[in-house]
């Protein structure tokens, strides 16, 4: 496999400036600038510890399809989602330790839930490998090098189950990716995603302040304060 | 229960499979305000890697393991479900305790479907009232009474039964969403009331001297340990006093494998547990054994220990595993105009506005052909962003991509949830037993759940949810999504619904059809009492904790006043 | 609190230990006899009043067997075994020996005790209370045949003779001390309060400033307004005045607030933290209600030492600004993000669960050390029999920068009418964790 350390597409700088302008206009206090200054830097494939460079590119572009940059705000890439997922793969969760994993593994109706023997790490590793093979076969390029509309088509085939990744049903892989993408976009920045709390800004979620005593019923007005992280100074701490 | 028994002078040891939890440490601000670690990675919940269960919808299926926590979330660690719950603290409709008798009186025996195993609780509201009252005072419950000592006193639920005293704290304030629901239902002639909440609306000191801070609607109730000390939990309301009692011992990381019985199988001698610190099996002897695990695991322990006869659906005999039930709950959504922000992150687990017009006993089920009922409520408990993003913009809307993103953001900012939180009856082929294939980390068979939705409950849910249409109009909703159960839709273990599981070791008057007598004492092994929602013979429209707590105090009272002076069966079998 | 006392003494090299070597224990142990339960109870209560346990019971060791270390710049000394063991403890003490040690600081062998032992306060204990205490320590406490670790001091600091001179100069005459305290009030409740505060309670050991000789400037209310006027900074906590200053003392505390504070560690006006918490935990929570009221009433007779303190008045402007989302005041954003969840936008907190910051004397002291310290490190009020709930304030040193903490401290000291001096980053930096 070829490595593409230098080919990570960076966000067009104009779009970024426009977004920041928008976010700053939203904010009513210097808090936003302070918080942004204290947020950890983006994780790049060079720093990924679980994903290979190619895997990282896949996660980055697939998560961006799920949560794309648009006029509402940043997408998964700008929010650092792939780095977040990479970190999560180092945790007990990534190793499947939160799941019941005793054999035998027997498939059954979907209502009875996940029945594969794979941990999240194995789902990504096996799933990305199989998907890459299929992309190369059909489109002669890995997923992250496909045009956006083709990427979207591939993902919808996964979502509906039209595409299977060896023994991993498409929807199983898709839901894993979707869940982790949304977690990375909207969890506290201490986990490496939701960079600059821009996911929260976009949703209007105030973060870890946890006090609405004076704002229980605003009679339809929005809550006035922007978000706050558990710890702006804690960077990329890995927990559970 | 442990507090009651140490007060009675007994030496009490609690065996807890999980770790110790002190709110001041594990629940401290702001580290506990963390959705990923809390609701998503499920910090306070059961470690499935050690013990789980298997699930199937039908008796002819192979049950498969519940490998990822999803539909329901049993707790683990000191406090258990009492730590991670929301705080909805209801009493009970008196007729719900005698639902079989009341149904027959009003609609005749034929109204009960053939496969429905409906039974009375064998305890009355009047008998339990002092214990509801006691539990509310221990929990520091906020609410508004309707009838106290036979006199109308406030703007509380007009369908609620008489109380011996008012709530210890005034009701929680309405969020914007709840206020909208209150106004709309009032306008339509329904009877809205403030939900009784074990979230303290004021600072409070309970009869044990334990203190609560006031709830500030931070929204981190369900799945969290409440850094404000305002959601009632054993950790905040009981253990601070209990831990000081020299007669009390708490052993954590102690996974009980079974209750030991003597040769007659009529007397428990203690328990065998695995000490998870050194992985050695240890035994502890006891004169009196209280099973106080989560509902599922009380039943599991009885089956593993050989207490009582396992239920057999084919012959309809045996009692352990019988009358298992869940809770019908569907959440509908209204979107308000874009100039109205619902600030869904503001909330308290037990606070909200409800109507009981379709849950109260006088509501005529005859024309609709179902037993049971459902309150409707806006219980804005604090919607957090990962949950909101996962739910997206509603069903039939894109689940990813640009359109999804716009829909999701709009939905988070301007919509509100309404729950139909209804009863679930019990059926002959819905039950719990031991799984033949899968085992836990201690090589014991897993519990097996056979469960799906039945027409009676689907019909009830659909009828009640349908009543939301005029309410949505009255609230000025710009878009409405009514979510209801579908006929023949199997129970889906992948979707979170609620952790209100019940039955399986039920109380009753007949030892052939119940595991426990009216004092929650095992018919088969009289020095075992089993405390939990496993004792309910069927489901309720209300959340189970209030009744569960009252039954615990009721049982403790009879242990203290009767059993301890003359140990033996409290009801002749 | 004696721990703090000794650490100050360490600075002027008056250091040693209350130790009894086997060679000195030659008298026969006292013979056990039947003791009336009421007398035993009185003695036990005296031991609580005097907080003997604070110094003489170390975690992991039997009660009263000593071993609490006092780490000082010049070495470590250990509190002694005061159980009735004849060899390791005080089993050979006669009641007269015992009384002389407690009230005059003189050991059975005639040598002088380190004034870590607050004998200048205990001097005024009545003969009846000493008798009860003696009976309790000889018949109510289990003998423990263990010695604390030996003191680790090097000569000349290990010399004990300078202590004798110190004692000559500063230890009060027992009879005079007793008479003086007894004569302060004719009201029996106030007299009892004075007896407890000046005597067994030895409040002045921390709350009265010390002179150059490291002796408390005065032992009694009659001795002038320095009595209980605040003891400076001990272990990075400001010891506040217990006099009637409106802002920095107890001027706005009601009698019931003082009683609740000493009984449960928590009052609507404030919650204990720092060095006071162990005193409440080991001692004052078990005082009788009548004694607590006597103490409170006595403290309320102490006129302000700091004169001309302007009266604290609640000013709603900061609250109003926060509630209308105006965060322009320096530190306001940090306060609303990190503090308001418990202490509220109005700074009034929540009763005895989360203490008020508005008008809190600890917030209003000239020296902001305590406020900075608790923001950085947090603290916990432990479970007590009188108030079983334990509450914690989280520490923010991991979360916030020194500048942030300086800004928050500044905001708290300016808001709601508090109007105190500002705080610099350097103030924050200087407070370092000992954990």
TrEMBL record, chain B:
Glucose-methanol-choline oxidoreductase C-terminal domain ranges (all copies): 434-552
InterPro entries: FAD/NAD-bd_sf, GMC_OxRdtase_N, GMC_OxRtase_C
Tree of life domain: Bacteria
Flavoprotein is among the record's keywords: yes
Residue ranges annotated for the Glucose-methanol-choline oxidoreductase N-terminal domain, each copy included: 212-327
Keyword field contains Flavoprotein: yes
UniProt KW keywords: FAD, Flavoprotein, Oxidoreductase
One Pfam family here: GMC_oxred_C
Protein family according to the UniProt entry: Belongs to the GMC oxidoreductase family.
PANTHER family the UniProt entry points to: LONG-CHAIN-ALCOHOL OXIDASE
Protein name: Gluconate 2-dehydrogenase
């Amino acid at each position: 496999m070829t490595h593409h350390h230098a080919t990570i597409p960076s966000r067009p700088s104009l779009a970024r400036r426009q977004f920041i302008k928008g976010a700053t206009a939203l904010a009513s206090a210097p808090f936003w600038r302070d918080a942004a200054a204290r947020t950890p830097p983006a994780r790049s494939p060079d720093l990924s510890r679980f994903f290979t460079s190619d895997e990282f590119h896949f996660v980055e572009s697939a998560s961006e399809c799920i949560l794309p940059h648009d006029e509402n705000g940043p997408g998964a890439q700008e929010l650092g989602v792939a780095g977040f997922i990479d970190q999560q793969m180092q945790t007990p969760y990534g190793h499947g330790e939160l799941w019941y994993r005793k054999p035998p593994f027997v498939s059954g109706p979907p209502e009875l839930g996940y029945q594969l023997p794979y941990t999240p790490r194995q789902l990504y590793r096996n799933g990305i490998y199989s998907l890459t093979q299929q992309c190369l076969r059909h489109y002669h390029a890995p997923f992250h090098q496909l045009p956006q509309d083709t990427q979207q088509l591939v993902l919808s085939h996964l979502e509906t189950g039209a595409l299977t990744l060896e023994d991993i049903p498409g929807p199983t892989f898709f839901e894993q990716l979707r869940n982790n993408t949304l977690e990375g976009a909207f969890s506290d920045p201490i986990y490496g995603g939701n960079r600059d709390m821009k996911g929260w800004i976009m949703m209007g979620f105030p973060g870890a302040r946890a006090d609405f005593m004076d704002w229980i019923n605003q009679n339809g007005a929005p809550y006035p304060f922007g978000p706050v992280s558990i710890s702006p100074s804690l960077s990329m701490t890995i927990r559970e | 229960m442990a507090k009651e028994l140490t007060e009675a002078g007994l030496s009490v040891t609690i065996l807890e499979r999980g770790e110790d939890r002190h709110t001041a440490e594990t629940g401290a601000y702001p580290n506990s305000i963390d959705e990923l670690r809390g609701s998503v990675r499920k910090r306070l919940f059961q470690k499935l890697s050690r013990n789980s269960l298997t699930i199937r919808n039908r008796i002819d299926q192979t049950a498969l393991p519940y490998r990822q926590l999803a539909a329901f979330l049993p707790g683990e660690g000191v406090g258990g479900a009492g730590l991670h719950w929301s705080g909805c603290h209801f009493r009970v409709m008196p007729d719900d305790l005698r639902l079989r008798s009341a149904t027959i009186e009003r609609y005749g025996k034929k109204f009960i479907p053939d496969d429905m195993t409906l039974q009375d609780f064998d305890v009355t509201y009047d008998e339990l009232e002092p214990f509801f009252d006691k539990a509310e005072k221990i929990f520091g419950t906020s609410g508004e009474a309707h009838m106290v000592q036979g006199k109308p006193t406030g703007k509380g639920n007009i369908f609620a039964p008489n109380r011996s005293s008012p709530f210890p704290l005034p009701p929680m304030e309405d969020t914007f969403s709840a206020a909208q629901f209150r106004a709309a239902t009032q306008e339509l002639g329904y009877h809205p009331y403030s939900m009784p909440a074990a979230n303290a609306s004021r600072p409070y000191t309970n009869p044990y001297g334990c203190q609560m801070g006031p709830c500030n609607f931070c929204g981190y109730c369900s799945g969290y340990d409440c850094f404000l000390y305002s959601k009632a939990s054993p950790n905040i309301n009981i253990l601070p006093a209990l831990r000081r009692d020299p007669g009390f011992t708490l052993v954590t990381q102690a996974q009980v494998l079974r209750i030991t019985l003597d040769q007659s199988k009529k007397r428990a001698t203690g328990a065998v547990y695995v000490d998870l610190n050194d992985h050695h099996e240890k035994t502890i002897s006891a004169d009196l054994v209280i099973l106080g695990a989560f509902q599922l695991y009380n039943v599991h322990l009885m089956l593993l220990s050989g207490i009582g006869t396992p239920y057999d659906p084919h012959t309809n005999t045996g009692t352990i595993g019988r009358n298992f039930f869940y809770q019908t709950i569907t959440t509908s959504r209204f979107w308000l105009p874009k100039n109205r922000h619902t600030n869904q992150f503001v909330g308290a687990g037990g606070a909200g506005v409800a109507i009981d017009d379709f849950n109260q006993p006088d509501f005529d089920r005859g024309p609709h052909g179902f037993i049971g009922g459902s309150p409707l409520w806006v219980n804005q408990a604090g919607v957090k962003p990962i949950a909101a993003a996962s739910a997206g913009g509603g069903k039939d809307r894109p689940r990813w991509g640009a359109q999804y993103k716009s829909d999701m953001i709009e939905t988070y900012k301007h919509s509100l949830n309404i729950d139909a939180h209804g009863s679930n009856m019990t059926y002959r082929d819905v039950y719990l037993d031991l799984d033949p294939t899968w085992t836990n980390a201690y090589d014991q068979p897993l519990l097996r759940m056979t469960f799906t939705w039945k027409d009676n409950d689907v019909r009830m849910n659909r009828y009640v949810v349908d009543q939301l249409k005029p309410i949505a109009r009255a609230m000025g909703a710009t878009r409405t999504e009514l979510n209801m159960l579908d006929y023949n839709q199997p129970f889906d273990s992948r979707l979170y619904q609620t952790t209100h599981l019940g039955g399986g070791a039920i109380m009753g008057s007949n030892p052939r059809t119940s595991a426990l007598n009216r004092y929650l004492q095992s018919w088969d092994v009289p020095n075992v009492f089993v405390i939990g929602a496993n004792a309910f013979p069927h489901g309720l429209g209300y959340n189970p904790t209030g009744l569960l707590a009252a039954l615990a105090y009721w049982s403790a009272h009879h242990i203290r006043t009767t059993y301890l002076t003359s140990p033996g069966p409290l009801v002749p079998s | 609190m004696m721990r703090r006392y000794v650490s100050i003494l360490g600075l002027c090299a008056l250091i040693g230990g209350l130790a009894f070597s086997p060679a000195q224990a030659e008298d026969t142990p006292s013979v056990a006899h039947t003791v009336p339960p009421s007398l035993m109870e009185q003695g036990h209560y005296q031991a609580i009043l005097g907080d003997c346990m604070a110094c003489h019971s170390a975690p992991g060791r039997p009660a009263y067997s000593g071993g609490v270390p006092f780490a000082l710049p010049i070495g470590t000394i250990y509190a002694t075994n005061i159980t009735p063991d004849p060899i390791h403890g005080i089993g050979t003490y006669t009641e007269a020996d015992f009384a002389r040690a407690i009230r005059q600081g003189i050991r059975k062998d005639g040598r002088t005790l380190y004034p870590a032992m607050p004998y200048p306060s205990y001097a005024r204990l009545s003969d009846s209370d000493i008798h009860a205490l003696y009976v309790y320590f000889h018949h109510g406490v289990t003998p423990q045949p263990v010695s604390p670790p030996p003191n680790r001091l090097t000569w000349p600091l290990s010399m004990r003779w300078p202590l004798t001179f110190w004692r000559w100069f500063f230890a009060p005459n027992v009879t005079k001390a007793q008479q003086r305290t007894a004569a302060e009030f004719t009201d029996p409740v106030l007299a009892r309060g004075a007896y407890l505060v000046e005597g067994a309670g030895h409040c002045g050991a921390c709350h009265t400033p010390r002179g150059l000789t490291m002796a408390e400037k005065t032992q009694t209310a009659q001795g002038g307004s320095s009595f209980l006027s605040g003891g400076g900074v001990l272990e990075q906590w400001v010891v506040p005045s217990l006099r009637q200053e409106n802002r920095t003392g107890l001027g706005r505390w009601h009698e019931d607030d003082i009683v609740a504070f000493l009984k449960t560690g928590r009052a609507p006006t404030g919650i204990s933290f720092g060095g006071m918490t162990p005193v409440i935990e080991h001692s004052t929570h078990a005082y009788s209600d009548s004694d607590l009221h006597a103490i409170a009433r006595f403290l309320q007779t102490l006129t302000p030492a700091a004169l001309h303190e302007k009266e604290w008045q609640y000013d709603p402007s900061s609250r109003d600004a926060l509630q209308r989302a105006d965060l322009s005041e320096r530190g306001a954003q940090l306060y609303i993000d990190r503090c308001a969840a418990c202490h509220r936008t109005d700074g009034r907190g929540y009763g005895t669960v989360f203490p008020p910051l508005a008008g809190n004397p600890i917030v209003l002291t000239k020296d902001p050390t305590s406020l900075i310290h608790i923001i950085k490190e947090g603290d916990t009020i432990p479970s007590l029999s009188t108030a079983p709930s334990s509450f914690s304030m989280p520490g923010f040193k991991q979360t916030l920068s020194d500048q942030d903490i300086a800004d928050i401290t500044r905001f708290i000291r300016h808001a709601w009418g508090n109007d105190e001096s500002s705080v610099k980053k350097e103030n924050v930096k200087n407070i370092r964790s000992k954990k």
